[in-house]
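Obj: model holo form, ligand = adenosine-5'-triphosphate.
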Amino acid sequence: MMRDITLGQYYPVDSPIHRLDPRTKIILIFLYIIAVFLVPNLLMYIPVAAYLVLAAGLAKLPFSMLLRSLKPMRILLIITFVLNLFFATGTKKLLQIGGFVLWQEGLLTALTFSFRLILLVTGSSILTLTTSPVTLTDGLERLASPLKVIKFPAHEMAMMMTIALRFIPTLIEEADKIIKAQTARGADFETGNLMARARAMIPLLVPLFISAFRRAGDLAMAMEARCYRGGEGRTRLHKLAYGRGDLLAFLSILVLYAVILSTRML
Amino acid sequence: MPIVLEKLSHHYKSGPNTAVALEDIDLTIQDGELLALIGHTGSGKSTLAQHLNGLLEPTSGRVLLNGEDINQKGANRRALRFKVGLVFQYPEHQLFEETVYKDIAFGPKNMGLAEEEIDARVRGAMDRVGLEFEEMKDRSPFELSGGQMRRVALAGVLAMQPAVLVLDEPTAGLDPRARDYLLQDVKRLNEEGTTVVLISHAMDEVARLATRVAVLAHGKLVMEGPTAEIFVQQERLAQMGLDVPEAFKLALRLQQEGLNLGNHYRLSDIADGLAAAIKGGDTA
Ligand SMILES: Nc1ncnc2c1ncn2[C@@H]1O[C@H](COP(=O)(O)OP(=O)(O)OP(=O)(O)O)[C@@H](O)[C@H]1O
Ligand SMILES: [Mg+2]
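Output (holo structure tokens):
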């Protein structure tokens, strides 16, 4: 059950997408998200989806990985779909069951919002699946560093994110181990009503929090022991540099924009 | 209730990679024995242990308890876990209750036992691991020392009174006294009829306690037999990055010096042999 969380989990293979500069990928994801919102009608989701599939293919990500990133969102997806379906009003009736009227507009908005959500989530998960957490935050820090002029703590933010991301797999592993240990004592995490299940989480959450705090303490100590004192004057091990792939990537998103915008104009 | 592993294999999948943790293991755990499971780091010991109570499902092969496949459809996994108790590596990290008493009672409570029975079991388990009941029962498990926490965790499993007890490196990180104490407990339990599977890196510990030893290397069962027969194969063990007990090394040195006491692997046996040899020398 713990293995379902894809967000923040790096999928380590070598691919053209993996090799892109993290800054490129972050900017691209932003542009991609805007593109998703710019899509004027259902039909135009096809080029966006194609773009996504192309990126996933180039990144050598199995389809199942993308599906898995949607799994935690499934409830939100269903709610979005159902709410839009039944609470929109319009002009063209498609179906009427008793007091319920299904409008064509309702169906269209429901589909639009659901596709939008799916494309947004899978798109962002491609970023985290193809970029190691350290590289990702490196990219973020570099992108945000101009903001240091207005006292924005770019380095501290990046460090916090690196640490948080770094510990996600550790915590998952830890949770897995604790679940097993409590299961061995007859704990039951999977059956019962909501209250029973919530209560069943206590034997998992208490040890997990304790170990997280212990780790945080240890880490702070270890960082201080190695004289960490913030970003001022710190040099980097890996210098970021743009390459030819990055140029191609930017061009590709331009093409996507051209396609979407051209239909908007028409 | 004997546990039989039949052609047991386990592969871990993580992202694009598959790691073969166990391959074609055939092993029987007899009633009442104290089987030691040894092997280098990453050889698959913990993985094997988690198959014994159904926490992991085999990729292929079967685990039989009393002749019944524990992973077949409809098998009662929870009941199984009360029969085969598993104490994980660093079990103190699983403590969660406000008091020692409540934490140890967690297992028996899950078994659905009556209040008096739970109470009796908690007392019994605490007594067994050397925790003073009145003094310890209301303390928070988190303010105890590492060794005490380990004992609370062990008591938490013992309170379920499993017929088979699997211990994954129970003495790792304990000081010598806490270690001896814990091993005493394990030995006593075994003498009273509990089947024990002991995973350990400490060869002296294994030599002292185990009746039989199974050696894992890279996920395969490479050696298996009575303790004495395993430890005489010093060179093979060394090849796998394993050591032999200190006592055995001593016996070997003595042999090189011309005093043959046989292949002893227990310090006490060597002491006896030496004493006999010295006395024999005196009278001759
Ligand atoms: N949850 C997991 N996911 C992926 N691989 C794993 C997992 N747990 C263990 N492994 C791998 O399986 C192999 C066997 O691991 P296992 O923990 O059983 O070894 P071990 O003999 O208990 O080692 P140790 O002496 O260090 O405790 C190792 O190569 C390990 O990397
Ligand atoms: Mg282990």
